[in-house]
């Protein structure tokens, strides 16, 4: 009958718990959310990795396209420079001094290379054949001095020769002379053509005698670049190394007249700086032609100090990446929905046995919380979960045994603790009376009240008095701790003068300070606000702090007692120049019976109660106490009390 009653009781408790806590719903949510989080995190990583790879691929594809065109134009420039070198090297070793023959040579090169718009040479006075005087004002390939300066060109479509103009003034003719190096000019407009000149010095026996070179129309670059496309709406253009536009698919009026700096865009300006020093890269900015967000790739054409620039709308470039991301998100969402459904089914399949076990546990825990450890879990559950209630019953058996043993031990400890507290309190009280008598009679003898004594006797009696005070403080400390343990300490808070307390403390400890060959300095204001405090307890606290300072300061040292006023507090400091304390040990100093190590206890004595009592007294006054110290540099104890 008892078993049947327990089963009914268990059933009622179980039903009540199910009403209060919907375990089924919580379990489904836990499993569902866990699966969702894992799937969402995995999906996010897959989407991020995949789209990042496709984005990197789009960037690489754009960079490769820009690089290929840059290399193509670089090859063209190298070919043009090679022709200029051929003209210069041929005329360097040419000895026939036949102006007609050289003209034919230049004309033939211009015919054989359709990409050229002009070929030329120019010699210093009398450096070609020494006959300049014979050709003064003789057209078409001599200047007014008769120098040989033929310029073959087909500007306008017809091939003809004329004297090379402004040879003496233009940099791209004079720089090869000054530098004795090849020069590739900046693009310039000449008779409606955007031209670049390749100029090579002619050197004979280490002496500059003239130049040879070719002119190339850059219009073909615009024709090629204007037809370059990238993705759906990307386009390309080229610039010189100083940022002059050499081509543009839409704004033809910009060619040769507009520079990158004219766009007044910080990112484009940074690109212009890179182009100037022959660097490639890419920037993200607003396309000055369309006003759309764009990614601009630029690659140097190193031979010509030009740069090929590819402008791709960001949305256009990343369209495939966006489409891929959307597809992955859709697939992942469907997978998440499927996994959530699967989680629901799994949760439903294990809800019933878990509900039974949890309800059983709740029943047992309620009994245990009421102190009844005799209840046991129902073991008639499904085989997969049978070890759980069996294990719980084993734990309960062990807990019952330990509980019985702990209860017995606790009773013994309570008895011992009460005996200890009573012993400490009784011993402290019993010791105070004889100590008071010992000190009183010793003081009478020391003062000469009971007769004259010699100096040696007085020194000995002084030692007895000091140790009596020390023993009294030890007894007071033990009594304080026992009273604190019993929570029976009473404080007598009254208005009092802190300067008076501090001066009295100095008088109480002056003999001990002198006996230890120490010097005491006072930094106490003559006038100080009064505070509400327990005068006796504060005196005990200061005595403990000064006693500690005396104990850990070697002979000849200085102890400083200071005080100053703050806005809302009175601040007391007790400093010494003694042995100091390692920083990592300072937090332990206010613990009861704490000593830094056993050697400290043996060398300096003490119970480890002084600072503990000081903190208890400061806390009772709603104050603060802390220590600053360094080994071998002394210690300062700070006490801050509210006004």
TrEMBL record:
It catalyses: ATP + protein L-histidine = ADP + protein N-phospho-L-histidine. Its main location: membrane. GO terms for molecular function: ATP binding. Residues 392-426 form a coiled coil. Keywords: ATP-binding, Cell membrane, Coiled coil, Kinase, Membrane, Nucleotide-binding, Phosphoprotein, Transferase, Transmembrane, Transmembrane helix, Two-component regulatory system. PROSITE patterns: HIS_KIN. This is histidine kinase. It comes from Methanococcoides cohabitans.
